[in-house]
C-alpha cells in the first residue's frame, strides 16, 4: 500500500518564532518534512513567520510564505494555493492550534482540505484533558485523580477532594505554560487564574500531586496499517515536578525492568490507537511511583515534539521524516532505514550507548525571576551528549552547557556540618544548580539515601554521581597519573580540565588542560569514535554519525576528499540561537559538493545535527578538548582544509585562538583579527586609522578605573563585559553608585567562576540615536553589503530585542554611502575574510561605530530572506578561498549591486523580536519587568514582509504577538521627554476610534494638545474609597487593549513596573518607546484598511530587487 | 584508538579477566560474577531491558551472552521475573555492571546472583567492538577466564593455550541439548488470572524443551490448563492426558540433531491434534514437515525484531532468540515434502523484515502452526500475544487446519 495518489499538494505549517518551549526542533522537523514531501513530487506550500529557519529557505518548498500564522492569513493562503491537505503535526503546538482554529472557522470544509498526520478528533482527544483521561481509562491505564474546572471557585471546591499540593494544568497550552503546583489557596487562586487565562478554552485541570515520582516518556510512531513502534524511551533524572524540557533526561530508560518497561509500552500503544493518531508520531509521558511501580499516564502530544527531536538524534531514527512519509500513505515497512540502508523503518531502535540531555537556562537575564523549576518550562536551550555509559555522557553533556557554575567540580574543601545540612535542604528545591549541588552534597559525605530523600533522584543516578566523585578523589590523591587511572577517569566523563584542576596543575587553565592532554597522549589514552546506528551494531551503518568514547575500537572511515570542519553553536541561549545554526547549515550545504563537510555540534534541536546535513556528523561538546580530538581523528582519516569557527557564534569563536595555537588551520578571518575587533584598544586603533568616530569609551579592570573612566565620559554610560553575545551583563548606568554596584557584581561572578575579572567596557551612552545594523561579506578586496537595517527602537536597546526594517526607511543615499565606506574601511582594517556585522549609531549627523563583529551575526538569515541572497553560503565559500568576483560570476551572489542598492519597489521586511517575559515570575508570582534595555532577552524573531512599511510592521506584530488592537482602550503614560513626540501618534489613535486612558499628568498634557483622555488612578494612588480601580486593576481585568508606557531614566523605569507586569500577565501589547508607538499607529491604520495579502518568497524573488549601483 | 599491546601471557592485574574467541581475538576486562573459566558459543543480545529474563532463558544454555546495552544490573535481581529456576547462560559479557541496583522489586544485585549461581562473567569490555566482530565473522566459540583460570601454577597462562582450549570445545551445530534443560517431572499450570479456579476451557500438553515460565502462564491466562511434560516424554504420555492441543517450546541446540523430538511431533500431527510451536517448536515443525533447517550467521537475539505476517502485511515487534532457521519457500503455498506431501499444504506465515528469514509456518491441511519468535515475550514486547488466542481458537473451533486462522485475523483487522 504505497503513497496516496490523491494528495498532490500539502500545506505545512511551521511553528513561528522561537519561544521557550518551542524552539528550533520544529525547524529541524519541518525541514525534514518539506524535504520528504518534495522528494515525493508533492507541491509543498509552507507558512512560517520565522526567517531564521532553514525550512523557509526557498529551495525547501514550492511556495514559502513568511507570513503570520493566523487564521486569516492561513485562510488567504489556502484560498490562493488550494492545497489538498494540511500537515499540522510538525510545527509544534502553534501549528496544531492553527489547524484547530481553521477547522472551527469552517475553512477546512469550505476549501475541502484534509488534515494529515492527525485529524481534529485525534488532536482533541490527545490535548483535551477530560477526553484524554477517558482515553487512558479505556486503554487500561491510570490517570492522576483530577478535576476539570472553569472558574476559581470550582477549583477551590475540587481541592477539598484532591488535597494540597495540586497540579494545575491549563488545556491547549504548550511548554506547560500557565501550569504549576499550588500548595495553598493563595497559590491556587493565582496559578488557576493565569491558567484560565492562557487556556484558549478557559479550562484548567487540577490533579493529585505525584511530585517525586519517576518520570518517563515514550516516542511512538504509527502508520495507516496500524503498525506501531516505540522509537525511544526517555527517563527524566529529575523526578515529576520539573517540566521534561527543564529536566536532565537520559535515553534509553535506565532504571526499569523489562516488565515495567513493557507496561509503559503497552499503555502507550493502546493510547496512540485510541486517540486515533493514524499516521504519525506522538509522545506520551508517564509517572511511576518509585515505591510501588504504580503507573500514571501524565499526558500525550499527538504530534512531533521537542522530545521527538531529541529521540531522533538519540537513536538515529528520523521521526519527523518518517512521520511525513506515513502521513502521505506509506507504511513503516515500505520506508527504508537510511542508516543501515538495508532494513526498514518498521522496527524499534536499540542503542548501545547512553544519551544525556541537559537544559540550559537564562535566569541571569531575569534577575527578579523565581528560579525554581516547575511544570512550566523555562529553559531556553539544551545540550545532548552520547557516551558508552551514563557518567561519560553526563560529563560530556555538562561541559557542553558552556556556562560557568553548571559543571561538576571538586574545588575547595567539601562543605561540612551546618553547611552540608543547608545544602541538603537547598537541593530539595529543583533549580538549574541542583545537579551540581547534589554532586557537592555527595562529595561532602552525604549518603545516597539522604540525597535521595532530598531530591527523589533515583538512587542509581546518585550512585553514578558518587562514582564520579570517587574517581575524582582517586585522581586528586594518586601519586601520579597512570594509564589505568586516567582511562578510568576519562571513561567516566571527567574532562582534561577537571583532571587538571584535581591534580592542582599550575598555570593558566588552558596550559593546565594542555598538560593533562599531553600526559594522556603519552599514555595512549585517546577517545575512539563510535557510530549511532539505530541497531546496536546488529547491522552495518552507512551514515557517519559519530560520538566519542574511551573504548577500544574506532569506526571513523578513511576518506579521500579534503575536509572542512564546521563548529556549530552548542545549546541555544538568548543571544545565540537558531540564527547561528542557520549559518552553519548553509556552510555545510554550500561546501558539500567540493569538500567533505564535517559538523561538530551538541544541540539536538537543530538542523545542523541532522545526520544528512553535513557529510559527517560528530555529536560532541564544543570544547577545546573535544574539538581537537575530532580534528586529530579526522586528520588520520584524510586531508583537512580547515576549520570554520565564525558561523556558530561566540562558542566556537572563543575556541579559535587555542585551536590556532594548537596548529589547526582556521578558515576565514584570522583569530588575531577576531581578537583585535574585541579588544577595545586594538579596535580603537582600527577606527582611528580609518578615521571613524566611536562613542567615547574606556576599559576598566578595577572599580577605581571604572569610576574614573565613567566620570571622564559623563553619565549615562553603557557598561558591559568584553567577549559576550546578546549583551549579557550590559547595562545603562546613570550614576556612580549604580556603577559601583555593577562592578562589584561582576567581581563576584568572576570569583565564582574562578577567573580574574574580564575587562569591563564603558561607553558613552548615545541618547536618542538611531541604530543601524549592517551585514557584509569581505574577501580581502571586495565587499558585498548583505543588507542595512534601521532599528525601530532607538540605540540603547539591544539590537537583538529591537525591531528593525530593511531596506532602511529613513536613510538618505548619502548616509548609505557613508555606511558603505565606513564598513569597507573597518573590514580592511580588521582583516575580515567572510562575514562581518557592524552596528552604528546615527546622532546629529555623526555616524558612530558602536561595534564591529567579524563573524556571522544574528541578522544574517533575516537579511538573506529579505534580499533573496544566500549570505551564509557565500561566506563559507569565501572562507574556503573563493572571491566575491567568483561568487558573482557563479551566480551565488548577484552579478552587480548588493543589499545597499535595493530598487525603489523592493519589498519591506520588518524583523520583530519575541520576548519570553510571561514565562518568568518573581517569587511572589508577579510577572518580571518587560522594559527593554541593552541586555538581550528575546528568544526569537519573526519577519513581516510586504510592499510597504506599515503593512510589513503590522504583519510582524501579528506574527510576534497576535497583532495590535484595531479598536478599544489604550492607556498612555509617557515620560516627560517623550511627551512632545508622542502627541501626534496619540492623536491619531484617537482619530482611529480608540478610547484613551491616561494618568492625571499625561491627561493634562494631552488635553492641552486637544486630545481628550480619561484620567485613571495610578497604581501608587491605590483604589479610591468608592472602589474606583487603578490602572493596574483595569489592565488585570482585561479592560485595556493596549498600553503605551515609555519610561526614561533609571527611576522612571522602575515606576512603571507594576503596569508592565500586569500587561504581561494580561497578554496585551505594550509599547515602551515613541518610535514603536509611531510604527504601531501606522500598522493599525494598515490593518484597518483591510486584510493582509500574501506573497510567497518565490513570487517575491521572480525578479531581483538588487540594482547595479556603486560597488566599493 | 586505545592502544592495546598484543598479549602473549594472560594479564595479572587485580580482577583481571579475559574473553578469548576461537579465532584468536582477545578482549581483556574485569571479572564479573563468579571467578573461573567458562566456555560456550558467544552470541550478542540487543535488548535494552530484560537481562534477568535473558539469563534465565533455557534457550541460552551453553552460550556466552554479550549484552549490547552498556549498563547491566541496574534493576538488580528480583524473584518474580526469572523465566526458569536458574541462570542458563554459560557466561555473561557486559560493559558497565551496576554498582548499586535500584528498583522497588530488587532483592539483590546481579553480581551477587551470578556469583551465587557460579556464572562466570566479564565486564569493562568494548561490547560494541565485540558485537561488530561477531556480526562480521558470525557466532563462534569463546571462553571467559578469570582468577586461577588465568594461571598455570604461579605463572600466567599463555594466551595461545587459552585459544586452544576454546577451540577444543564442541560446536553448537549438531548439539542436542533440549533434554538437558527440560524439567525432570511433569507439572500442571492451572487457569489463572480471570480464569483462576474455573474449569479449564481447554487442556494443553506442553513439551518442555527449555520452556520459559511465561509460556504456560500466557496459555493459562486464557483459560487453558497446561500440562508441562519433560522433554523425553512419549506420545503415550501425552495422549494419556487427553489433550485438546499440543505445544512444543523453545529450547537450545541444533534442530537437526533433534530427531527424537521430530518423530514425536509427527505422531502428534498424524493424529490431527491441534499444534502450536514456538522457536525450537517452529524448527521442529519445519523438520517434521520435511523442510531443512540451517544456522544463521549471527542469529536474531533481541526484543526489537520486526516480523511481518504476510497475509495481513502487518508488522509486529517481537522478542527473538534463535541461531537456526527453517528453510522453507516464502510467498508460495508449498507442499510439505515429508512423506510425499502427507501433511499437505503449508505456507510461510511470518517473515523477519530485517533479513527475510522464515519466522512462522502455517499448515493448510492439518491444524498446526508455529512461530520462530517469542509471543510470550519476557523479555520483550507483547505485540504477538494474539498467537495464544489463535491457538485457543484452533482448539475451540475444531477447524481441521490452521489455514483459517490468519484469514480470521485479516477479517478482524478490516473490522477495525
The proportion of residues in beta strands of chain B is 25-35%
Residue share in helix of chain A: 25-40%
CATH topology of the domain at 129-143 and 211-351 in chain A: D-amino Acid Aminotransferase, Chain A, domain 1
Radius of gyration of chain A over all CA atoms, rounded? 28 Å
Query: Portion of residues in helices of chain B?
Result: 10-25%
CATH superfamily membership of the largest domain in chain B, which one? Class I glutamine amidotransferase (GATase) domain
Task: Give unreliable regions of chain B as ranges.
Answer: none
CATH class of the largest domain in chain B, anyone? Alpha Beta
Oligomer: heterodimer
Q: What is the CATH H-level superfamily of the domain at 129-143 and 211-351 in chain A?
A: ATP-grasp fold, B domain
The number of domains of chain B is 2
Total number of helical segments of chain B?
Answer: 11
What does the secondary structure layout of this molecule look like, with pairings?
The complex is a heterodimer of chains A (1112) and B (416).
Chain A: E1 9-13, H1 25-39, E2 43-47, E3 63-65, H2 71-81, E4 85-87, H3 92-104, H4 107-110, E5 114-115, H5 120-127, H6 129-138, E6 146-149, H7 152-162, E7 166-170, E8 180-182, H8 185-198, E9 204-208, E10 214-222, E11 228-236, E12 249-251, H9 258-275, E13 280-288, E14 295-301, H10 306-315, H11 319-327, E15 354-360, E16 381-387, H12 390-400, H13 417-426, H14 434-443, H15 448-455, H16 459-477, H17 483-491, H18 496-502, H19 509-522, E17 528-531, E18 545-549, E19 563-567, H20 578-591, E20 596-601, E21 616-619, H21 624-637, E22 640-644, H22 650-653, H23 656-661, H24 671-678, H25 680-690, E23 697-700, H26 703-713, E24 717-721, E25 731-733, H27 736-752, E26 760-764, E27 770-778, E28 783-794, E29 804-806, H28 813-830, E30 834-843, E31 846-853, H29 860-867, H30 871-879, H31 884-890, E32 908-914, E33 940-946, H32 949-961, E34 969-974, H33 979-991, E35 995-998, H34 1000-1008, E36 1014-1015, H35 1031-1036, E37 1042-1046, H36 1049-1055, H37 1057-1066, E38 1070-1071, H38 1074-1088, H39 1097-1100
Parallel strand pairs in A: 1-2, 1-4, 2-3, 4-5, 18-21, 19-20, 19-22, 20-21, 34-35, 34-37, 35-36, 37-38
Antiparallel strand pairs in A: 6-9, 7-8, 7-9, 10-11, 10-13, 11-12, 12-15, 13-14, 15-16, 17-18, 23-26, 24-25, 24-26, 27-28, 27-30, 28-29, 29-32, 30-31, 32-33
Helix pairs in contact in A: 1-11, 5-6, 6-9, 13-14, 14-16, 15-16, 16-17, 18-19, 20-30, 25-28, 26-27, 32-38, 33-38
Chain B: E1 16-21, E2 26-33, E3 37-45, H1 51-55, E4 63-67, E5 71-72, E6 91-93, E7 96-97, H2 110-116, E8 120-123, H3 127-137, E9 140-146, E10 151-152, E11 155-156, H4 159-167, H5 178-181, E12 187-189, E13 202-207, H6 214-220, E14 224-229, H7 235-239, E15 245-248, H8 259-270, E16 275-278, H9 280-288, E17 292-309, E18 314-327, E19 333-335, E20 345-352, E21 358-363, E22 368-371, H10 386-397, H11 403-415
Helix pairs in contact in B: 8-9
Amino acid at each position: 500500500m504505497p503513497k496516496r495518489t490523491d494528495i498532490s499538494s500539502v500545506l505545512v505549517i511551521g511553528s513561528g518564532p522561537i519561544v521557550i518551549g518551542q524552539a528550533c526542533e520544529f525547524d529541524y522537523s519541518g525541514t525534514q518534512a518539506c524535504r520528504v514531501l518534495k522528494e515525493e513530487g508533492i507541491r509543498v506550500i509552507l507558512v512560517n513567520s520565522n526567517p531564521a529557519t532553514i525550512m523557509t529557505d526557498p529551495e525547501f518548498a514550492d511556495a514559502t510564505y513568511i507570513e503570520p500564522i493566523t487564521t486569516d492569513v492561513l485562510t488567504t493562503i489556502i484560498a490562493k494555493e488550494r492545497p489538498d491537505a494540511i500537515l499540522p503535526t510538525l510545527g509544534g503546538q502553534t501549528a496544531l492550534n492553527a489547524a484547530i482554529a481553521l477547522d472551527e472557522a469552517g475553512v477546512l470544509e469550505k476549501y475541502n482540505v484534509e488534515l494529515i498526520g492527525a485529524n481534529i478528533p485525534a488532536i482533541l482527544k490527545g490535548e483535551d484533558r477530560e477526553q484524554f483521561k477517558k482515553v487512558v481509562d479505556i486503554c487500561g491505564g491510570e490517570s492522576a485523580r483530577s478535576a476539570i474546572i472553569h472558574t476559581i471557585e470550582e477549583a477551590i471546591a475540587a481541592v477539598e477532594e484532591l488535597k494540597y499540593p495540586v497540579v494545575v494544568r491549563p488545556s491547549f497550552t504548550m511548554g506547560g505554560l500557565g501550569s504549576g503546583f499550588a500548595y495553598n489557596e493563595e497559590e491556587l487562586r493565582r496559578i488557576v487564574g493565569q491558567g484560565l487565562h492562557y487556556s484558549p478554552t478557559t479550562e484548567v485541570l487540577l490533579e493529585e500531586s505525584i511530585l517525586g515520582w519517576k518520570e518517563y516518556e515514550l516516542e511512538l510512531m504509527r502508520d495507516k496499517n496500524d503498525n506501531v513502534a516505540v522509537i525511544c524511551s526517555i527517563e527524566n533524572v529529575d523526578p515529576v515536578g520539573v517540566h521534561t524540557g527543564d529536566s536532565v533526561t537520559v535515553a534509553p530508560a535506565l532504571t526499569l525492568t523489562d516488565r515495567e518497561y513493557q507496561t509503559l509500552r503497552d499503555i502507550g500503544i493502546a493510547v496512540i490507537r485510541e486517540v486515533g493518531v493514524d499516521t504519525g508520531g506522538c509522545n506520551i509521558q508517564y509517572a511511576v511511583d518509585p515505591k510501588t511501580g504504580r503507573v500514571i499516564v501524565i499526558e500525550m502530544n499527538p504530534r512531533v515534539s521537542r522530545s521527538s527531536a531529541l529521540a531522533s538524534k538519540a537513536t538515529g531514527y528520523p521521526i519527523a521524516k518518517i512521520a511525513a512519509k506515513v502521513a502521505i500513505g506509506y507504511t513503516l515497512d515500505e520506508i527504508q532505514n537510511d542508516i543501515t540502508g538495508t532494513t526498514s523503518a518498521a522496527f524499534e531502535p536499540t542503542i548501545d550507548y547512553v544519551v544525556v540531555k541537559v537544559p540550559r537556562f537564562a535566569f541571569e537575564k531575569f534577575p527578579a525571576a523565581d528560579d525554581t523549576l516547575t511544570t512550566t518550562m523555562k529553559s531556553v536551550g539544551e545540550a545532548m551528549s552520547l557516551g558508552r555509559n551514563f557518567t561519560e555522557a553526563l560529563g560530556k553533556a555538562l561541559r557542553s552547557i558552556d556556562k560557568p557554575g553548571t559543571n561538576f567540580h571538586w574545588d575547595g574543601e567539601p562543605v561540612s556540618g551546618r553547611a552540608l545540612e543547608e545544602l541538603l535542604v537547598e537541593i530539595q528545591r529543583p533549580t538549574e544548580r541542583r545537579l551540581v549541588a547534589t554532586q557537592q552534597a555527595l562529595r561532602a559525605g552525604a549518603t545516597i539515601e539522604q540525597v535521595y530523600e532530598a531530591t527523589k533522584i533515583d538512587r542509581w543516578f546518585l550512585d553514578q554521581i558518587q562514582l564520579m566523585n570517587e574517581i575524582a578523589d582517586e585522581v586528586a590523591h594518586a601519586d601520579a597519573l597512570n594509564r589505568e587511572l586516567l582511562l578510568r577517569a576519562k571513561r567516566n566523563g571527567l574532562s582534561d580540565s577537571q583532571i587538571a584542576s584535581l591534580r592542582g596543575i599550575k598555570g593558566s587553565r588552558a596550559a593546565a588542560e594542555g598538560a593533562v592532554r599531553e600526559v594522556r597522549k603519552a599514555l595512549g589514552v585517546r577517545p575512539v569514535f563510535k557510530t549511532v546506528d539505530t541497531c546496536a551494531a546488529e547491522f552495518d551503518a552507512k551514515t557517519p554519525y559519530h560520538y566519542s568514547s574511551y573504548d577500544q575500537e574506532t569506526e571513523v572511515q578513511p576518506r579521500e576528499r579534503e575536509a572542512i570542519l564546521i563548529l556549530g553553536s552548542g545549546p541555544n541561549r538568548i543571544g545565540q540561537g537558531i540564527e547561528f545554526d542557520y549559518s552553519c547549515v548553509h556552510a555545510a550545504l554550500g561546501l558539500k559538493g567540493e569538500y567533505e563537510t564535517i559538523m561538530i555540534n551538541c544541540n539536538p534541536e537543530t538542523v545542523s545535527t541532522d545526520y544528512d546535513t553535513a557529510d559527517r556528523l560528530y555529536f560532541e561538546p564544543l570544547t577545546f578538548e573535544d574539538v581537537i580530538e575530532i580534528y586529530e581523528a579526522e586528520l588520520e582519516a584524510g586531508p583537512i582544509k580547515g576549520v570554520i569557527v565564525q558561523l556558530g557564534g561566540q562558542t566556537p569563536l572563543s575556541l579559535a585562538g587555542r585551536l590556532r595555537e594548537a596548529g589547526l588551520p582556521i578558515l576565514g578571518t584570522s583569530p588575531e583579527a577576531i581578537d583585535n575587533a574585541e579588544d577595545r584598544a586594538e579596535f580603537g586603533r582600527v577606527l582611528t586609522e580609518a578615521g571613524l568616530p566611536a562613542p567615547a569609551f574606556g576599559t576598566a579592570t578595577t572599580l577605581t578605573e571604572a569610576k574614573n573612566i565613567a566620570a571622564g565620559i559623563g553619565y549615562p554610560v553603557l557598561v558591559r563585559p568584553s567577549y559576550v553575545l546578546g549583551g549579557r551583563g550590559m547595562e545603562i548606568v546613570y550614576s556612580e553608585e549604580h556603577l559601583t554596584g555593577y562592578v562589584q557584581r561582576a567581581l563576584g561572578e568572576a570569583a565564582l567562576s574562578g577567573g580574574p575579572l574580564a575587562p569591563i567596557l564603558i561607553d558613552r551612552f548615545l541618547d536618542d540615536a538611531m541604530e543601524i545594523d549592517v551585514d557584509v561579506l569581505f574577501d580581502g578586496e571586495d565587499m558585498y553589503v548583505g543588507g542595512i537595517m534601521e532599528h525601530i527602537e532607538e540605540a540603547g536597546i539591544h539590537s537583538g530585542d529591537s525591531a528593525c526594517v530593511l531596506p532602511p526607511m529613513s536613510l538618505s543615499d548619502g548616509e548609505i554611502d557613508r555606511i558603505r565606506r565606513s564598513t569597507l574601511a573597518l573590514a580592511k582594517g580588521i582583516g575580515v575574510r567572510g562575514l562581518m556585522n557592524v552596528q552604528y549609531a546615527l546622532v546629529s549627523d555623526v555616524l558612530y561605530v558602536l561595534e564591529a563583529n567579524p563573524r556571522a551575526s544574528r541578522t544574517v538569515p533575516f537579511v538573506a530572506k529579505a534580499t533573496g541572497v544566500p549570505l551564509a553560503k557565500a561566506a563559507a565559500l569565501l572562507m574556503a578561498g573563493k572571491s566575491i568576483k567568483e561568487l558573482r560570476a557563479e551566480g551565488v551572489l548577484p552579478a552587480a549591486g548588493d543589499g545597499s542598492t535595493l530598487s525603489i519597489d523592493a519589498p519591506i521586511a520588518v524583523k520583530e523580536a519575541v520576548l519570553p517575559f510571561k514565562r518568568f515570575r518573581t517569587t511572589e508570582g508577579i510577572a518580571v519587568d518587560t522594559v527593554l534595555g541593552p541586555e538581550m532577552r528575546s528568544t526569537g524573531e519573526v519577519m513581516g514582509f510586504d510592499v510597504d512599511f506599515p503593512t510589513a510592521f503590522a504583519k510582524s506584530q501579528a506574527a510576534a504577538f497576535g497583532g495590535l488592537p484595531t479598536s478599544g482602550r489604550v492607556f498612555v503614560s509617557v515620560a516627560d521627554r517623550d511627551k512632545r513626540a508622542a502627541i501626534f501618534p496619540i492623536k491619531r489613535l484617537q482619530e482611529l476610534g480608540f478610547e484613551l486612558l491616561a494618568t492625571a499628568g499625561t491627561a493634562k498634557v494631552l488635553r492641552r494638545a486637544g486630545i481628550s483622555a480619561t484620567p485613571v488612578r495610578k497604581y501608587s494612588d491605590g483604589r479610591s474609597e468608592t472602589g474606583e480601580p487603578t490602572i493596574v486593576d483595569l489592565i488585570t481585568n482585561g479592560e485595556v487593549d493596549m498600553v503605551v508606557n515609555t519610561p526614561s531614566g533609571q527611576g522612571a523605569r522602575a515606576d512603571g513596573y507594576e503596569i508592565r507586569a500586569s500587561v504581561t500577565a494580561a497578554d496585551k501589547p505594550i509599547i515602551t518607546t515613541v518610535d514603536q508607538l509611531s510604527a504601531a499607529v501606522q500598522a493599525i491604520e494598515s490593518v484597518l484598511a483591510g486584510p493582509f495579502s500574501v506573497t510567497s518568497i518565490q513570487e517575491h524573488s521572480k525578479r531581483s530587487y538588487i540594482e547595479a549601483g556603486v560597488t566599493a | 584508538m586505545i592502544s592495546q599491546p598484543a598479549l602473549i601471557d594472560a594479564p595479572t592485574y587485580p580482577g583481571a579477566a579475559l574473553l578469548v574467541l576461537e579465532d584468536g581475538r582477545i578482549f581483556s576486562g574485569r571479572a564479573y560474577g563468579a571467578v573461573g573459566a567458562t566456555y560456550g558459543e558467544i552470541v550478542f543480545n540487543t535488548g535494552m531491558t530484560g537481562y534477568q529474563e535473558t539469563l534465565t532463558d533455557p534457550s541460552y544454555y551453553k552460550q556466552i551472552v554479550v549484552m549490547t546495552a552498556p549498563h547491566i544490573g541496574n534493576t538488580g535481581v528480583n524473584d518474580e521475573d526469572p523465566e526458569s529456576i536458574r541462570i542458563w547462560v554459560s557466561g555473561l559479557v557486559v560493559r558497565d555492571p551496576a554498582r548499586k541496583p535500584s528498583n522497588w522489586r530488587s532483592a539483590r544485585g546481579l553480581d551477587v546472583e551470578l556469583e551465587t549461581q557460579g556464572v562466570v562473567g566479564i565486564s569493562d569490555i568494548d561490547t560494541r567492538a565485540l558485537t561488530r566482530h561477531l556480526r562480521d565473522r558470525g557466532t563462534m566459540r569463546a571462553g571467559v577466564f578469570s582468577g586461577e583460570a588465568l594461571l598455570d601454577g604461579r605463572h600466567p597462562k599463555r594466551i595461545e593455550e587459552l585459544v586452544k582450549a576454546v577451540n577444543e570445545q564442541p560446536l553448537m551445530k549438531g548439539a542436542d541439548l533440549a533434554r538437558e534443560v527440560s524439567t525432570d517431572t511433569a507439572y500442571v499450570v492451572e487457569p489463572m488470572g480471570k480464569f483462576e479456579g474455573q474449569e479449564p476451557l481447554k487442556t494443553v500438553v506442553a513439551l518442555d524443551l527449555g520452556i520459559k515460565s511465561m509460556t504456560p502462564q500466557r496459555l493459562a491466562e486464557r483459560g487453558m490448563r497446561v500440562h508441562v511434560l519433560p522433554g523425553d516424554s512419549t506420545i503415550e504420555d501425552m495422549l494419556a492426558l487427553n489433550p485438546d492441543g499440543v505445544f512444543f517450546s523453545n529450547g537450545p541446540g541444533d534442530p537437526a540433531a533433534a530427531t527424537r523430538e521430530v518423530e514425536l511431533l509427527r505422531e502428534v500431527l498424524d493424529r490431527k491434534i491441534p499444534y502450536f510451536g514456538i522457536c525450537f517448536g517452529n524448527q521442529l515443525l519445519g523438520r517434521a514437515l520435511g523442510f531443512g533447517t540451517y544456522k544463521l550467521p549471527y542469529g536474531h537475539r533481541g526484543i526489537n525484531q520486526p516480523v511481518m505476517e504476510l497475509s495481513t502485511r502487518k508488522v509486529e515487534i517481537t522478542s527473538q532468540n534463535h541461531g537456526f532457521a527453517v528453510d522453507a519457500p516464502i510467498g508460495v503455498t508449498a507442499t510439505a515434502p515429508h512423506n510425499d506431501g502427507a501433511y499437505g499444504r503449508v505456507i510461510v506465515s511470518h517473515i523477519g523484515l530485517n533479513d527475510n528469514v522464515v519466522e512462522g509456518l502455517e499448515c493448510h491441511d492439518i491444524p498446526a502452526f508455529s512461530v520462530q519468535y517469542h509471543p510470550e515475550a519476557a523479555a520483550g514486547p507483547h505485540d504477538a500475544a494474539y498467537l495464544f488466542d489463535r491457538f485457543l481458537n484452533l482448539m475451540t473451533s475444531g477447524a481441521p487446519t490452521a489455514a483459517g486462522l490468519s484469514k480470521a485475523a485479516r477479517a478482524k483487522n478490516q473490522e477495525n
